[in-house]
Amino acid sequence: MKALALAVTLSLTLAIAAIAQDSKPSPKSNGASRQPAEAAANIDVAAIQKKIDEFSEAIKREPKNDAYYGARGQGYKRLGKLDLAEKDFTQAISINPTRQAYFHIRGNVYGLQKRHRESYLDYTKALECGPKTHGLYLNQGQAAILAGDYKSALSAAKTAQQMKPDDLETLVLLGSAEQMSGMLQESLKHLTRAIELNPKDGGAFSIRGTTYQKLGQSELAKQDKEQAKRLGFQL
Predict the structure, then answer these.
(1) What is the chain's mean pLDDT, rounded?
(2) Rounded Cα–Cα distance for residues 25 and 6 (Å)
(3) Domain check: are 88 and 49 in the same one?
């Protein structure tokens, strides 16, 4: 699970860094598109398929039981069958539209499908359902920035940072959203803090390099980009 979480974090940093320099991440560098296959490689596919079949039978008996759709949707998601997972969570939501987890997980599914606007809307709905957690605000902000909605990304990142001031992912997200919004000094401050917390974060160096570039500080921008490469960060 730690490896999978790291892959998700890395893919988001890659995507955000690419947006920061007005380019698109290449298929090779975008870990999000590979995640279902990576996840499937580390799970017991047969066991999960068996559970899916069991929940399918349960749904035949109780077609209005939202929990069965949610559980089967989780199974499909773990196998990388994202269209089927989306369908099940949508059905679960239609039966029980107040359960936060359904919106949260469907938001994850949309993100894996690169449907970032829909992902953002689902995370927003999950927050409305409550409770309002740091992780959900972080998800919401990441989806917003990948959707090109920098105002919403900035709002979510600020709220997340109030909850966890020195969280690395939050600082990188906040610095990125500030950069996109033209708040370059604030971006520099938060990205520098992220680097202080983890000087081996190549993504933070890359994004800060773009901030320096936008500030007209070409030498510092070059140094950060080179450091990002030395740390193995490649777009």
Answers:
(1) 87
(2) 18
(3) yes
For 81, the enclosing helix (H) or strand (E) is none
Could you tell me if 100 and 172 lie in one domain? no
Say how many C-beta atoms besides its own lie within 10 A of residue 167's C-beta.
18
Q: What is the pTM of this model?
A: 0.83
Q: How far apart are the first and last CA of the chain?
A: 24
Please indicate whether residue 20 or residue 92 has the higher confidence score (pLDDT). 92
Closest CA to 35 of 15, 5, 70: 5
Interval 55-62 mean pLDDT: 98
Helix, strand, coil abundance in the chain, percent, nearest 5: 75, 0, 25
The more confidently predicted of residues 7 and 50 is 50
Confidence of residue 8 (pLDDT cuts 50, 70, 90): very low
Instruction: Report whether 9 contacts 170 (CB < 8 A).
Output: no
Q: Which domain holds residue 163?
A: 158-234
204 found inside a domain: yes
DSSP codes of every residue in 115-156: -HHHHHHHHHHHHHHS---HHHHHHHHHHHHHTT-HHHHHHH
What percent of the chain lies above the pLDDT cut of 90?
Answer: 81
Both 180 and 123 in one domain: the answer is: no
Per-residue confidence (pLDDT) for residue 64, from 0 to 100 = 97
d(CA 231, CA 156) in angstroms, rounded, equals 29
Q: Are 188 and 215 in contact (CB under 8 A)?
A: yes
